[in-house]
Design goal:
Blueprint lengths: L2 H20 L6 H8 L6 H12 L5 H22 L9 E2 L2 E2 L1 H4 L2 H20 L6 H12 L4 H10 L5 H11 L1 H13 L6 H26 L7 H6 L1 H4 L1 H21 L3 H20 L1 H8 L2 H12 L2
Antiparallel strand pairs: 1-2
Helix pairs in contact: 3-4, 3-10, 3-15, 4-6, 4-10, 7-10, 8-9, 10-11, 11-14, 14-17, 15-17
């Protein structure tokens, strides 16, 4: 078992344990557990841990609360995103989405509960810098951050490339930025310049990974008519390819500058699935991407760690 898989097992165990004491003793608890378990790739909590390891400042209890915070908050956004009034998705992580399994109002309240629970877990951290952490996190994930990104995503029927990029910066990057910056905010030894750079690193990762996620949508044997109309790679292929190259160059530079070896491994592990998916769907992507597929493959080759 590699160290990433071991970390996933530990984080999953911590998640199960904390739910025992923080969910109601009521049938509603099954809805929360259904949404949270089994977890996905745990990419964001793994980023929390890798950043703490890269700084040689990993404290099991403190950083466990941060890991659980970003995972539970992430799942709240997924539960709400899947609702009929938003993206209206019927499947999530290989099973029925929460509102399909139960119903819409139960899923809505489940998301509300997970949102609040995530901040309660964050409050369990014992640190004199906790108020600073709360200010950053609530800004990053609140009405000027992730939530506004969701608003822009739903409101933009035909977004320009610049609007698309702004949506990704908010909707996708903000929680990744939280995972990268939060561990360092708890330490007085991290200079402001480094905090700003970690914030930028999260922005670049979020945009690059969202673009790759858009590309992955085109690997399906049947792409929905809606996806064909809104997919960023079909609307603005040259722009997306250029942004992907720019963002990954920035990511590589910052990883090297701050010697983020564990964080590099977590990113590489996350990218394996996308790389294999695209390789296995070469024919379908060729039809939808044309000669630009070669450019994508070259970029993906460089993305591999």
């Amino acid at each position: 078992m590699d160290f990433i898989e071991k970390c996933r097992e530990e984080i999953t165990s911590d998640l199960k344990r904390i739910l025992l004491t923080h969910l109601p003793r009521h049938e509603a608890a099954q809805i929360y557990r259904y949404a949270l378990l089994p977890p996905g790739k745990l990419f964001r909590p793994l980023l929390v841990r890798s950043m703490a390891w890269d700084r040689q400042d990993y404290r099991r209890e403190t950083h466990s609360y941060l890991e659980l915070f970003v995972e539970i908050h992430h799942v709240y956004t997924l539960v709400h995103d899947d609702l009929p009034c938003m993206d209206d998705d019927s499947m999530r992580r290989g099973k029925e989405s929460t509102h399909q399994k139960f119903n819409e109002w139960k899923a809505l309240l489940c998301g509300d509960g997970l949102n609040t629970l995530s901040f309660h877990i964050l409050s369990l951290i014992e640190s004199p810098r906790l108020p600073l952490l709360f200010r950053y996190v609530s800004w990053a994930l609140g009405p000027k951050g992730l939530v506004h990104g969701q608003y822009l995503d739903l409101a933009s029927k035909d977004p320009s490339p610049d609007k698309l990029l702004r949506t990704y910066k908010l909707k996708t990057s903000r929680l990744i930025q939280t995972a990268l910056v939060a561990p360092s905010l708890l330490s007085e030894s991290v200079p402001l310049r480094a905090l700003k750079d970690l914030h930028l690193l999260g922005e670049h990762i979020g945009i690059a990974f969202q673009l790759l996620d858009d590309l992955s949508e085109l690997t399906e044997e049947r792409v929905s008519p809606q996806e064909l109309e809104i997919n960023s790679f079909l609307l603005y292929q040259d722009f997306c390819l250029k942004e992907l190259e720019i963002r990954w160059g920035k990511i590589e530079g910052l990883l090297k500058t701050y010697s983020l070896s564990y964080t590099r491994k977590v990113l590489g592990d996350y990218l394996k699935g996308t790389t294999h998916l695209i390789a296995d769907s070469d024919g379908r992507l060729k039809e939808r991407m044309g000669e630009n597929l070669k450019v994508v493959q070259e970029i993906l080759h460089r993305l591999s760690f």
